[in-house]
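Tutorial sheet, problem 5. The two components below are modelled jointly, 1260 residues in total.
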Amino acid sequence: MMNWKVCFFSIWCASCMLCLFSACTHSRSDQSAEEQVPDVISYNFNIRPILSDKCYKCHGPDASKREANLRLDVPESAYNALKDNPQAHALVPSEPDLSEVYRRISTPDTTELMPPPSSNLKKLSPYEVDLIKKWIKQGAKYEKHWAFVPPQLPAVPQVKNTAWPKNQIDNFVLQKLEQKGIDPNPEADKERLLKRVSLDLTGLPPSLPTMDAFLADKSSDAYQKVVDQLMQSQQYGEKMALHWLDVARYADSHGYQDDNYRSQWPWRDWVIHAFNENLPYDKFITWQLAGDLLPNSTKEQLLATGFNRNHKITEEGGVIDEEYRVSYVTDRTNTFGKALLGITLECAHCHDHKYDPFSQKEYYQVYSFFNNVKEVGIQSTVGGPETYAKRPIMQISNEDVKKVLNFINKQDTAKLIVSVMGDSDKVRPTYILKRGNYDAHGDEVEPGTPKSILPFAGNYPKNRLGLAEWLFNKNNPLAARVFVNQTWQEFFGKGIVKSSGDFGMQGDLPSHPELLDWLAVDFREHGWDMKRLVKQIVMSATYRQSAALTPEKAKSDPENTYLSRGPRYRLPAEFVRDMVLASSGLLTRTIGGPSVNPYQPPGLWENATSGRGILANYKQVHGPNLYRRGMYTLIKRTVPPASLGIFDASNRDQCEVKRLRTNTPLQALVMLNDPTVLEASRVLAAKLLQDNSSGTAKVSKAFRLIMCRHPQQKELAILTAYYNDELKTMKKTDAEKLLNVGEYPVPANADKITLAAMMKVVDTIYNLEEAITKT
Amino acid sequence: MEKDFLESRLNINRRRFLSRLSLGIGSVALGSLLIPDLFSGSGADSEADFIPGIPNFAPKAKRVIYLFQDGAPSQLESFDYKPKLREMMGQELPASVRGNQILTGMTAKQASFPLVGSFYDFKQYGESGAYVSDLFPHIGKIADDICIIRSMNTDAINHDPALTFFQTGAQQGNRPSMGSWVSYGLGSENKNLPAFTVLLSKGKGNGQGVYSKLWSNGFLDSIHQGVQFSSGENPILYLNDPEGLNRHERRKMLDNLAALNDINYKQFGDPEISAKVQQYEMAYRMQTAVPEIMDVSKESDDIVKMYGPDCLIPGTYAANCLLARKLSENGVRFVQLYHQGWDQHSNLPQEMAGQAKDVDQASAALVTDLKQRGLLDETLVIWGGEFGRTNYSQGKLEKANYGRDHHPRCFSVWMAGGGIKPGLVYGESDEFGYNIVKDPVHVHDFHATMLNQLGIDHKKLTFKSLGRRYRLTDVAGNVIKGIIA
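Model answer (structure tokens):
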């Protein structure tokens, strides 16, 4: 039983914590009461976030959960007389005191207070109440949600410091900084800038010759030259592909319980190829959505449609076929919403969306585009190579690879099949599924799209090709914004809209709305040119800033919302691995091909398998395939690669547009004890020892290879002292044990103690925070 | 209780501090080995890691040990005694009993559904007189310590969705596991161990595997992810230092790392840098703490005898039960075991006997052991699978053999300790063991009740992700008051 003391304590404690936290809080939703309410209240930016978060749950678009027949998301209903009390109105423009909304959010009477305590929603802060009051005073005017209004090209703003901007991006960023009275950071030093841009454009650290050349190049366009070089390298496609593999939930197994192998990797090779060829974004997507439906479609276009077959497919005997077929169509629909429209369409799967204006009917209208595939819920249980793709499939012959699909890294003559899209001639009717249940058919629906985004025009074909045309219609408000934002996120660590998968009413507002629109329109009007967009971003002064965080900026821009410094983030999981392999010289630079199994702690697959299929036991590869880039590590969905998962890699279960980025002790353990890192340390140490140079010079070179900059004297002093100390104290037996890691041979003539001492120093550098950080 | 409550609040503050740290917002002195003082940090707060009022009331249980029987053991050979099925052996399942139940593809096309009663006898145990089958004599002996629920039901009929539903409250993946929710809600009691740990074992019966998404943190911070422990030489992935590197050497390396990171921190001011140092220190502490906990060599002979000789063989269910006690005793909030091999579509009498032998003694020993140590009151132990099994034979009913298909409508689980009524049999199925006739307990209710025992109102433990506030119980769930002591 909770007695009064406990109760008192909990209140005391909660209020203490509130005080403690609010003193140092800067977040948008909890602004302190002293904050000035703006002169002009914007519905989109000030009011809707509050209404959506606190009111729409019961007074929003979902008809089934609506209380008191009151909607606050549309003005007609909000201005009307209340059903239960016709004398009163929820909103009376210009009259807060006559508006029930204002009264109910500000009343001290808890039986009347909104949101009611039983909703478990926090009550509105005094600041929020003031905002709503002032908004009503100013006429309680509604606006269409910003993201559903097509972007217009805004004028590039004028700035005071005209010397700073390098392109239009900077004018938008600097304008805001000048308004806030914050100076941008100076440009990052050349070494850190090169590391940043190399990692961002190729996922790999720069090589020593590249570093030397860039440092030596004093010409004004040195940076641009290096950017062009990086963007022309084949590794550019690999880097850009990784995010898309998350979006497309690409994996090498079927998922679900037996989780046997699938041969979908040629589709992954195509993605790398498409980025390297700079296929325009509209084509990139149209081929993936509807390559099979294009007139005279090519094998390449058909392969691209593998995108919509990357979802999990069951091989569990005894499942109900239709249940699973429906789940595949649902997955495609949800992926379409999240990846390409940046909306949480899946929330309308079982009922009308609670926050955004998407009805359940509209959900199934979009669903109907993906509902006509010639597929079944379960085609086969675990079996041989014929089960590695599920109908519809395409077969890729060695002839194809020679001629039209030469980007596929097919290494043998075995039959190769890939799951792709293909529709039935006879249209399968689509019904609303009540509560989302596969067997609860409601009304039949026609293909269509959410009206609030853009109605589906009558002249479009009613198939996926029509859907792609709709997506790239000039008046589609989301397609360009969403992609531009995801791309921005890749370079700055977070999007201009932080919630890159939710541009809806519950999502974050853009930090720089005009910049987002400018980029989106500019991108669309320049032929959806992805490389051009990427180059604009990395050439900007905004991107090139130093990442240093001064105490002043820790106060004025703690989360870098205003972009007053450069991005500084820990690398994605796969690039942590790539950095280690590349800097040690171990990396095998082969592009594409079947995925591989590098070192993995024993027993992970074996302890969690049904015993069926070729992935029941982990078969590690040997030789050069041990040192492939992280993106080629085989992803078995039920037991995804352990060291990558610990660094927040996607498990590829569903479409993912943004990874978590955490910092945990398990990550420290991977860097300390993963044989990959230890072996790389040993191999690099052995290479260094071949140099005819001093110990200090060797340490310095290792530092440069890994950190991509010269060490400072202090740093070098610590590491050299460590090296010398190890040389003195290392026991030969310990050295031999330490060197006994990994399959790459140890040079026969190596002095064991020297090698092990250098290995420890290299390993220490790998474990520095900066080593796996984009600086 | 009041003291516990205070303690749990303090732990939460500590956890919030650490989780902010892991997000890189806080900053602490370099090289500190101690849990940082609550008030020394600065940092912004966000709704994401601020859960007002949790625990919502004084908790009964502080920790959970979940003995998951993966593959779905038959209730009809374990805890739901149905003599009628023996009487009607071989007769057809009446259509009126089946009603509108959809069958799996494995039996949907079966021409006949012959009822089959357990080949194993049942006995009544203890003061409660609960019926337990002869396959589980040790569990029978603790009948007065446990609460058997015979009216569990679920929404899913296949393994993957049913397991995922039980572990995450939703059939389709990417939601946080219940252990992650508890870690998020209550944090860790032990600064050197993760709050949520996972232990796997395998029986010889037909198995379906497990999936790491079952202990995934979903959209929660990955500090709440289940950390897989294994008994044996490498209890946590990458925990062991390489051979040839002793603790002293490791310490030296970490000191160098800290000094080097500090140089960078002073120039760049990024709190991620100091957070990283802190994580390395925690990893270092785990390297000592974990092997100490995993070491069963100091357990007394009585304990070994109680759990059975298998408890000394790494990777067995018995060893995992013993380990679960040790982890729990050391403050791990949620210890999740999975024992695989319970999917008896055929050969049920033989396979189930083997599976029961794997788990019976050690499951009972765990409850008894906790009780002896005075820990059962504050530890909630749960035993059960993802659904039940059909009352009719899958395939032909033979004289000495049969199988049972999946059955979501009713099955049995048991709980012990953590403020659950001991010696209670709750809920009832019809005489065919097919439908629930009294006090149904849905998976959402089960989750709500579990959280309730931990002092959490399941409606208040929420996390906002992509615009929606999620909870373990989705939009449903009622606390089952009838089983609460």
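Marking note: The CA atoms of residues 3 and 9 of chain A lie 10 Å apart. Full credit if you identified this.
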